[in-house]
Every structure is written in structure tokens, then in C-alpha cells.
Design a protein that fits this description.
The chain is an all-alpha fold and 375 residues long. The chain contains 16 helices and no strands.
Length: 375
């Protein structure tokens, strides 16, 4: 089996870019009326109609979680005997920790620095910023204590909450494998749907959405869908052209249903159902993309390698963009250092520069070190 699939990085890069552009467009273009703003608004309207109309979790995040489940389980799906090797879970834990935690901590520091800079001119006392919320965030237990009234988790860098949930999913991976092996696939899907259904019911009962969206209980089913997609791909279930075409048609039909839900169904809490459709669509697309890529010639793989560059930096881009935008918004926006029509483009450039720094000097070295760990 091919060791590297560029399709995964391409999809990952597009997901990260969609989150960045949503935040960038929403936060920076409220201050000016320029041609650039109108162009961004035009593409935002297309994005809203085709992928997300403002309800529930951002689709880029859903894609990230499906990808996570797919990538984590693909090695075991391809070689089930790996889990029987001595030290498997120790190496798994070390690799995940080395790849995630250094980037997470530095991104958290960036968020704190951003708040300190902004707070110095907005009567925010340092005690309000460097509070118990930061303590919980550094300990990595923020996604647990959030249900006990803690609301300012990952101060200055909210997207890190998604990363924390992903870490919880890594931690529950052995348990999920046990459920699958002991009780079968239906039980595993049932567990995910039970968790997911509790969110729908809670939303209908009027529970604050901030306590529901972006939590482990929502992401679990997306992660399971990703893992099941990895199994289907590893078994080569779509290698036949006619099967591939049938699955493509089913995915297209699901996407039409998804469009109808997000644009025309106005039922309280129903957008939660739409994100489940999106996860299923993404799981199917991953199988299709990788099946096609596995049949590509080296000529086309070289092109795919270029397109995958952003995806390699997607994690860094996701965790640094919020504090960078907020800090520059303060310096260039509120302080009027430069004209606002130039601020938005400069902000985007700075985000990519900070992303490259994080990738080169933090994320990539961690990846290289983690790869050296062998069973």
C-alpha cells in the first residue's frame, strides 16, 4: 500500500483554508467598503449556499474530524496484526503526543499573548486573562471542565478546543476498537449515534448550543465514520469501476439532500442532522479520492504533491490564524496605523508567514522525531 496519499493533504488543506477565510472575511471586512470586500462577500455567499449556512459546527472542522478518524485507523485497517505487536499503544501515544502537544502549547501561548496585547488597551486586567481557564487549557482537561461552568477555554485561540476534542478521541481509540471487536460494527455505530442523538435532544430541549457543538459527544460519530471509511478503502471495495460509479451517485444524492437541509429546512436544531450528512459525504469522498489516486501515474502524483503543500501546513494554519488576526486587528485596525483596505491583505500575509514558521520550526521537527519511533 502507498505510504503517502496526497489526496488527504489536499482535502486537509482545503478544510483549513475554508476555516481561515471564514474567520478572516468575517473579522477583517467589517471595517471597510472596498472592492476586495465585495469579492470576499461574493465567495462567502457561494460557500454558505454550498457548504454552510451558519448553523452548527463549521464544515471545515467536520472534515478535519472525519480525516482524523480515517488517518488514525488506516494503518490498522490495512494491517490488523499491528495491534498485536508489543509496545503498539505506547508508540501510538508517544507519536500522537509529540505531534500534537508542542504545537498546541505554543498556539495557546500565542492566544494568551494576543489577549495581553489587546487587553492592555481595553481595561482587561491580567488576572482576568491568566486565570484558571488557562490552567485547565494547559493541563488539557478543558474539554471536561467546560461542562462545569468554565467558558473562556483556550483564551485568545478558540479553535484549539477542536484539537483538545481530537486528543480525547485518540484517548478513546482503544475503547472504540474493543467495542468493534467484541460487539461488532453495528454496536460501534450505535454508540456514536447514541452520543450524537443526545445532542439533538438537548438542543430541542433548549440547552445552550455552546455546550453542545464542538464537543466529544458530537465529534465521536464523525470520527467513527472516518475510521469505517478507512476500512472500506483498505479492503479495496471500490476498485471496480462500476462500484465506484454507484458510490459516487449515492454521494451526489446525499449532497443534494444536504443542500436542501442547510438552505431550506428551518427546524430548530436540525442543522445538527445536516453535519452528519456532511460527515457521510466526506467519508465517501475520501474513499473515492484515494482509490483514484492509487491508480494515478507518477506524472499526476507530482502535480498532487504540489497541491498537497498547504495540507502539510494545515494544522499550523488552523492553530495560529486566530491570535494573529486578532492582534493585527488591534494594531492596524483599531489604532489606524494603515488604511483598512490594506489591513486585510496584510493580515492574510502575516497568517501565512506565522504558519510557515510554526510548520518549519515546531510541527515538522515533531513529525520527524515521531516517525523515528518504531515498534
Amino acid at each position: 500500500m502507498q505510504q503517502r496519499y496526497y489526496s488527504l493533504d489536499i482535502v486537509r488543506g482545503m478544510a483549513a483554508l475554508s476555516v481561515l477565510l471564514t474567520h478572516w472575511g468575517g473579522w477583517t471586512f467589517s471595517f471597510t467598503d472596498s472592492t476586495t470586500k465585495h469579492v470576499i462577500v461574493f465567495f462567502q455567499n457561494i460557500f454558505k449556499f454550498s457548504l454552510w449556512n451558519g448553523g452548527g459546527i463549521h464544515p471545515g472542522v467536520v472534515i478535519f474530524i472525519v480525516l482524523s478518524g480515517f488517518c488514525i485507523h488506516l494503518p490498522l485497517a490495512a494491517s490488523p496484526n499491528l495491534i498485536a505487536q508489543p509496545g503498539f499503544w505506547r508508540i501510538f501515544t508517544l507519536r500522537r503526543s509529540i505531534r500534537i502537544m508542542p504545537v498546541l502549547f505554543i498556539a495557546l501561548l500565542l492566544g494568551i499573548i494576543s489577549l495581553l496585547v489587546i487587553g492592555s488597551d481595553n481595561s482587561l486586567e491580567r488576572g482576568q486573562i491568566l486565570s484558571h481557564d488557562v490552567f485547565f487549557s494547559f493541563l488539557g482537561i478543558s474539554e471536561i471542565v467546560r461542562f462545569f461552568g468554565v467558558t473562556e477555554l483556550y483564551p485568545g485561540n478558540g479553535p484549539l478546543g477542536t484539537v483538545a476534542v481530537e486528543i480525547l478521541l485518540y484517548a478513546s481509540y482503544p475503547f472504540l476498537l474493543f467495542i468493534h471487536k467484541r460487539f461488532g460494527l453495528i454496536a460501534l455505530l450505535g454508540l456514536g449515534m447514541l452520543s450524537y442523538s443526545s445532542l439533538v435532544i438537548a438542543r430541542w430541549l433548549g440547552v445552550d448550543p455552546s455546550y453542545l457543538h464542538g464537543t466529544y459527544f458530537e465529534f465521536l460519530i464523525y470520527w467513527i465514520i472516518g475510521a469505517i471509511s478507512a476500512v472500506i478503502f483498505a479492503k479495496g471495495s471500490l476498485n471496480r469501476k462500476d462500484t465506484l460509479m454507484r458510490v459516487t451517485k449515492i454521494i451526489a444524492l446525499c449532497y443534494l439532500v444536504y443542500l436542501l437541509i442547510i438552505n431550506f429546512v428551518n427546524i430548530k436544531g436540525f442543522h445538527v442532522v445536516s453535519t452528519l450528512f456532511l460527515a457521510l459525504i466526506m467519508g465517501g469522498l475520501l474513499i473515492i479520492f484515494l482509490t483514484i489516486e492509487s491508480k494515478m501515474s507518477q506524472k499526476y502524483l507530482k502535480v498532487a504533491r504540489v497541491l498537497a503543500v498547504l495540507g502539510e501546513r494545515s494544522f499550523s494554519l488552523y492553530v495560529v490564524h486566530t491570535p494573529v488576526i486578532f492582534t493585527l486587528l488591534y494594531f492596524f485596525g483599531e489604532q489606524n496605523i494603515i488604511p483598512m483596505e490594506n489591513y486585510s491583505i496584510l493580515t492574510l500575509l502575516c497568517v501565512f508567514l506565522m504558519t510557515e514558521w510554526m510548520y518549519r520550526y515546531v510541527e515538522r521537527p515533531c513529525h520527524k522525531y515521531a516517525k523515528k519511533l518504531r515498534l
